[in-house]
Amino acid sequence: MSFTYCAFRMAADASLALTIPVLLYRIHKNGSSNISLSTQIMHCIAFVARYLDLFIMPSMSVYNAFMRFYIILGSLLTVGTLVVSQRPIRTQQRRTTLAQVLSVVLPSLCLAFFVNYNWTPPNGSRLGNMPLGAVMEIAWAFSMYTAALADIPQLMEYGKMEIKDSLLTKYLLLCFAFRGLYLPHWVLRWFDERRFDYIAVFSALVQTLIYIVYGFFIIRHHSRRQMIAADTTVHEVHFSTLEKGAVDEKAAALAEIA
């Protein structure tokens, strides 16, 4: 195993691990406003589906087992904390959350059923006859497709904020770093092992592109608001100067009359 791409993976895993305490601390300090419950539910679903091997594989490295347990438990804790923090959840919010989750989860499941590694559904097949290996492959592909789109509701919530929260900004940067660092990991792995994970690379590219596009529009919108605020300030200062000058001229005229 090449240490070069292993270092990228370790850095990506560290970024992912840090997202959990950062987000929990943000909820504790500033509340759950502008934190998308839909995104956290989809992350939780994706991680559980991705790490099913934790409960099936008889042997696994200590590092992999610890990271899987940590991510799954951390995701469940985050969702539970958000649900408690956002009580009472209004009917409209429940409908919006359900719609956002289903709009990502259902297409991802359909795509994973047909686009995965080492298994395709034969004609007339039944899900009950599906081998365990096929279930694992579909679950893994499903998790990658879901994770690629899961952050969209959170980015939309972040874009609505008038003043950007520093903790929420750090959380999103860590999410971006997690996926961005895995890209060179997979590229270098291909040079070392001649193994190219096209599902993972495609999903990572989609997720990274989403972050870049949303980041561009958020920065552009924020810059435009700053320009408008600056123009408003200049106009207010100019008007105040004119008003002060008119008052001074009136006072001088009254003094001459007196």
Give the gist of this structure.
Its main location: endoplasmic reticulum. The protein is an all-alpha fold and 258 residues long. Helix content is 79%, strand content 0%.
Describe this structure in words.
The structure is a single chain. With 258 residues, this protein is an all-alpha fold. The chain has one domain. It is 79% helix and 0% strand. The chain has eight helices and no strands. Pfam families: ER_lumen_recept (PF00810).
Describe the sheet with the most strands: none
Tally of discrete structural domains: 1
Oligomer: single chain
Total number of beta strands: 0
Q: Helix- and strand-based class?
A: mainly alpha
Low-confidence regions: none
Question: What's the helix count?
Answer: 8
The rough form would be described as globular
Subcellular location: Endoplasmic reticulum membrane
InterPro entries: ER_ret_rcpt
Protein name: ER lumen protein retaining receptor
Keywords: Endoplasmic reticulum, ER-Golgi transport, Membrane, Protein transport, Receptor, Transmembrane, Transmembrane helix, Transport
